[in-house]
Amino acid sequence: MDKKFGLDEFIGLTIKSARKAAGLKIVDVGQMSGISQGMISKIENAQVSPSLDSLNRLCDAIGMPISQLLTNYNRAEGDAHFTKSGEGLEVVRRGTDKGHEYRLLNYQRGGTRNFEPFLVTMDDLSEVFPSFSHPGEEFVYIVEGSLSYRHGNHIYRLEVGDSLTFEGNVPHGPEQLHSVPVKLLSVINYSSSR
After folding, report:
1. Preceding peptide of 135 cis, ω within 30°
2. What CA–CA distances, in Å, run from 100 to 148, 181, 183, 184?
3. Which pLDDT value is given to residue 101?
4. Domain 7-68 fold
5. How far apart are the C-alpha atoms of 17 and 13, rounded to whole Å?
6. Each residue of 50-87: pLDDT tens digit?
7. Where along the chain do its domains lie?
8. What DSSP string describes the chain?
9. Under a CB-based contact definition with an 8 Å cutoff, are residues 145 and 183 in contact?
10. What local confidence, expressed as pLDDT, does residue 108 receive?
């Protein structure tokens, strides 16, 4: 339901929707609940405020728990940032001149950012660039391909499904590309550095 409804209207639409989903007609629900067809129609069209007893009988007849009746009422609107596949914002970072493609999957204007998620793509023309360093903590997840990834003095062989989490202020980056193209999800969390 896309718009805000009053409580009676919301209850009426919920009952009507559940009744239709159960394949029941008003006459069927009336016979099972002992409530007249006219009253059911008035409830479904928000022309009356039904009692709890009437609602309980209607829900029983429809086969819906009464607790489910208000599940979605007054639900928070939500404010998510949706990025369609392949539509992240292409950005220039230190590895861009080495053939790494960076797609920022979420961005916000103004204010303080807590994290940055990137989809990084490297192919056989990409050079390795093992000297990134930045504030915060980074999470890397391999989506496609495989590579060796350096963090400080340690080298990790990462393949599809592998992940690595580390402090960003320690020099890090791809050491060797084994299977290309390599696509990795990189999420940098800045809140730990503030």
Report:
1. no
2. 15, 11, 10, 11
3. 76
4. 434 Repressor (Amino-terminal Domain) (1.10.260)
5. 6
6. 999 999 999 999 999 998 888 888 777 666 666 677 77
7. 7-68, 89-193
8. --S---HHHHHHHHHHHHHHHTT--HHHHHHHHT--HHHHHHHHTTSS---HHHHHHHHHHHT--GGGTTTTTT----------TT-SEEE--TTGGGT-EEEES---SSS---EEEEEEEE-TTPPP---B--SSEEEEEEEEEEEEEEETTEEEEE-TT-EEEEETTS-EEEEEEEEEEEEEEEEEE-GGG-
9. yes
10. 62
Q: How far apart are CA 30 and CA 28, in angstroms?
A: 5
One fold for 7-68 and 89-193: no
Q: Looking at the structure, give the CATH architecture of the domain made up of residues 89-193.
A: Sandwich (2.60)
193 with 136: CB under 8 angstroms?
Answer: yes
Q: Which amino acid, residue 90?
A: E
Match 């059911």 to its residue by tokens.
40
- The amino acid present at 96, given as its one-letter code, is T
Residue 191, both tokens: 């809140």
